[in-house]
C-alpha cells in the first residue's frame, strides 16, 4: 500500500503545471505524503514562481552529484539489472541505448531520493525519459511506479512497452489514449482518468457587462502547435463582415515573434493583446471578463486540455479543435464548438455565432458549467488516483 509518493515530472514547475499541484493537494488531504521531483528545472521564461512556492521543496534528477554518479559502483547487481533494461530498449538503435545508459546517474539519484524521503513509489507524469528513469529504478532497486500518459504515444520517443512493463498502474487522460495503450499493455493495468480542476476556483459570474466589446481568451504556450494563427485568420475574415472582437492571449513560448508577425500581417494589432504568463487565479479572473475561449491546436500533442476545462467551469463557451480527447469533453453545439484542425472557416463560423447570438451563448455557458461539474471535478478524479495508489 502506497502512502508516500514522489511526483516526477519533466521541467517542473512550468506555468501549465497547476494540475500537478492540485492533484498533490488532494492526495495530501487524504493522508498521503507527496514530494515533488523534476527531471530538470524549466527554462526561465517557463518557470512559475507561484507554483514553485506552492510546491515547497522540489528535488531535481539533473544535475547529479558525485555520490549519485558513483552509486551504481557500490551496487553492481543493481547496475546489471538497469543495464538489462537498457539492452531491451529499441528506439534509436545503439545511439538510443547509449543515450538511455547516460540516464543511469539520474536513476541512482531517484533511488537515493526515494530512500531519503521515505517514498518508495514514483508517480510519473510523463512517458518520456522520466518514464525510463522510473522503469530502471524499478528494475534496479525495486521502487514501484505509475505512469500518466498526457499525449499521443508518437511524441514520447518509443519503447512504450518497455517503459510500461513494470508499472503498477498506467493512467491515460483520454479514452483514445487508453485505447492506444491497450494495444501495447495489459488492459487491466490501464485506467482512464482525465486531469481534473478545482471547481471552487473556476466559477461562473453573471455580472458580465453586456455592453462591453465581445472578448475572446486563449491560454497556452506560444507555440505554432497551439494554432493561434488559425484563430487570427478567422478574426481577419470576421473583420471583413464588420465583427472586430478583442482577443486576449495568455502564455509564453518560443514562437511569440511568429504569432505577433501573423497578427500584424492580418491587421489585427489593435484587437489583440498578448498578456504573457498569468497565475491560475489571474486566469480565473480573466475568464470572468470574457465571452468566449479558444484553443485551436493542431498535431499530436494535446490530450485533455486543462485550459478548456477551466473555461467550461467558468461558464465560458469554448471553440476547440478536434484533437486528443476534446471530442469526449465537448458536445459540439451544446456546451461548446468543435472544429476540424486548421479549419479557418469553421472557427470563424463558430465565433460569429457566439458574437451574434447572445441567447445561444448563455445556453452554452450553462451547459458548459454543468459538464464541468459532471466530468472535470478534480476532487473526484484525483480521488480515483489516490485509491489506485493505495491499492498498490
UniProtKB/TrEMBL annotation:
GO molecular function: glycosyltransferase activity
CDD domains for this protein: GT4_PimA-like
Keywords per UniProt: Transferase
InterPro entries, per database record: Glyco_trans_1, Glyco_trans_4-like_N, Glycosyltransferase_grp1
Highest taxon, organism lineage: Bacteria
Start and end residues of each Glycosyltransferase subfamily 4-like N-terminal domain: 90-201
Domain Glycosyl transferase family residue range list: 212-370
Database matches in PANTHER family: SULFOQUINOVOSYL TRANSFERASE SQD2, TEICHURONIC ACID BIOSYNTHESIS GLYCOSYLTRANSFERASE TUAC-RELATED
Protein name in UniProt: Glycosyltransferase involved in cell wall bisynthesis
Species in which this protein is naturally found: Jhaorihella thermophila
Amino acid at each position: 500500500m502506497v502512502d508516500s509518493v514522489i511526483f516526477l515530472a519533466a521541467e517542473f514547475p512550468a506555468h501549465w503545471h497547476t494540475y500537478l499541484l492540485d492533484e498533490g493537494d488532494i492526495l495530501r488531504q487524504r493522508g498521503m505524503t507527496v514530494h515533488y521531483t523534476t527531471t530538470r528545472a524549466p527554462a526561465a521564461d517557463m518557470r512559475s514562481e507561484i507554483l514553485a512556492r506552492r510546491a515547497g521543496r522540489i528535488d531535481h534528477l539533473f544535475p547529479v552529484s558525485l555520490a549519485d554518479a558513483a552509486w551504481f559502483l557500490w551496487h553492481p547487481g543493481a547496475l546489471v539489472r538497469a543495464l538489462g533494461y537498457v539492452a531491451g530498449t529499441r528506439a534509436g538503435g545503439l545511439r538510443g541505448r547509449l543515450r538511455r545508459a547516460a540516464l543511469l546517474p539520474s536513476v541512482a539519484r531517484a533511488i537515493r531520493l526515494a530512500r531519503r524521503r521515505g517514498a518508495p513509489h514514483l508517480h510519473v507524469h510523463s512517458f518520456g525519459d522520466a518514464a525510463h528513469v522510473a522503469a530502471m529504478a524499478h528494475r534496479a532497486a525495486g521502487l514501484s511506479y505509475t505512469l500518466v500518459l498526457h499525449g499521443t504515444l508518437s511524441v514520447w520517443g518509443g519503447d512504450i512497452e518497455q517503459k510500461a512493463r513494470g508499472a503498477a498502474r498506467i493512467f491515460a487522460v483520454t479514452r483514445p489514449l487508453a485505447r492506444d495503450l491497450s494495444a501495447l499493455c495489459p488492459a487491466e493495468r490501464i485506467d482512464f482518468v482525465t486531469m481534473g480542476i478545482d471547481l471552487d476556483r473556476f466559477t461562473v459570474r453573471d455580472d458580465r457587462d453586456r455592453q462591453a466589446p465581445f472578448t475572446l481568451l486563449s491560454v497556452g504556450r506560444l507555440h505554432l502547435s497551439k494554432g493561434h494563427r488559425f484563430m487570427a485568420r478567422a478574426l481577419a475574415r470576421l473583420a471583413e463582415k464588420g465583427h472586430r472582437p478583442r482577443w486576449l492571449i495568455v502564455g509564453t513560448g518560443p514562437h511569440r515573434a511568429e504569432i505577433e508577425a501573423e497578427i500584424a500581417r492580418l491587421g489585427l494589432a489593435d484587437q489583440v493583446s498578448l498578456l504573457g504568463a498569468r497565475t491560475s487565479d489571474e486566469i480565473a479572473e480573466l475568464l470572468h471578463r470574457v465571452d468566449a475561449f479558444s484553443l485551436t491546436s493542431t498535431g499530436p500533442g494535446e490530450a485533455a486540455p486543462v485550459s478548456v476545462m477551466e473555461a467550461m467551469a467558468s461558464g465560458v463557451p469554448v471553440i476547440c479543435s478536434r484533437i486528443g480527447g476534446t471530442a469526449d469533453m465537448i458536445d459540439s453545439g451544446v456546451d461548446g464548438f468543435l472544429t476540424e484542425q486548421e479549419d479557418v472557416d469553421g472557427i470563424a463560423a463558430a465565433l460569429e455565432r457566439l458574437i451574434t447570438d447572445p441567447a445561444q451563448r448563455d445556453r452554452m455557458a450553462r451547459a458548459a458549467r454543468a459538464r464541468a461539474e459532471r466530468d472535470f471535478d478534480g476532487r473526484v478524479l484525483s480521488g480515483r488516483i489516490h485509491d489506485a495508489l493505495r491499492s498498490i
